[in-house]
Amino acid sequence: MLIRELAQEEWPAQLAEIPGPPKKLWARGAMPPAGHKLLTVVGSRAVTRYGQEVCERLIAGLAGYPVSIVSGFALGTDTCAHRAALRAGLHTLVIPGSGLGDSVLYPRSNRGFAKEVLDQGGGFVSEYPSEAPSRIYYFPQRNRLMVGIADAVLLIEAGQKSGTLITARLAGEYNRELLCVPHRIGDAHGFGGHLFTRLGATVVTEPLHLLEALKIAPRETATGTAPIDLEDSELGVWSMLEEPRTRDEIVRGASSAAGEILTALVSLELRGLIKEEYGAWRRV
């Protein structure tokens, strides 16, 4: 797809609010549709399995809502966020630390994935000319655009020395709501999330929390109708919850292994489909 310079009226309005806004923007593919909220997702390049699962579950729960997922195209969390958005049928916007030409997109290993993003209706935007190769100092500059363009910023995970901490700090400086995924106490990958939570960031454990931060009203759905994208073990748990049941009752009554059932419970809870109250699980 052709690379074009964006006219000022095409720029996301939020970028006018940040210090040192870009002088020019180039785009490729589709910009976020009018009326969409922009959720920027950041995290470690060495994303853990837990971080990947949470990223996928939270974004999957936004399917059907007017949300665009923004990230930086790096390996790890960024790529996970873009892929999860495409699987959920959401628009995704890539802001790389380079120009947008095929020969300079960074990282090189994601150039094939760039075609998938464009083919599925996503877009790319950069303040660098089309054939500008990546430079070390481009990435912090790029990060200010990722935060500046956002309605909210979701931090999946970040270690004590992660560059993601700088990006998360910008959320506070730019008056963007910062959302953090909790981790186990002592988990080095949770350093960033726990640090910013202590400083006032919002804890996120389910898609509903993302919708609240983006000021999007959740859909009212019939609790008796199962979502169409449930896996077998998830559907089994869902079917059992026509009335509230304890965890032990669910495990004893299910045909799947206990481990699969516990994973299904976590998955359904992260998607905001079930919740535990007073020791019993029920549909939301």
Automatic annotation (TrEMBL):
Domain DprA winged helix, chain residue ranges per copy: 237-276
InterPro entries: DprA, DprA_WH, DrpA_SLOG
Gene Ontology process terms (BP): DNA-mediated transformation
The organism's place on the tree of life at top rank: Bacteria
Smf/DprA SLOG domain boundaries: 7-214
Record Gene3D superfamilies: 3.40.50.450
Assigned protein family: Belongs to the DprA/Smf family.
Official protein name in the record: Uncharacterized protein
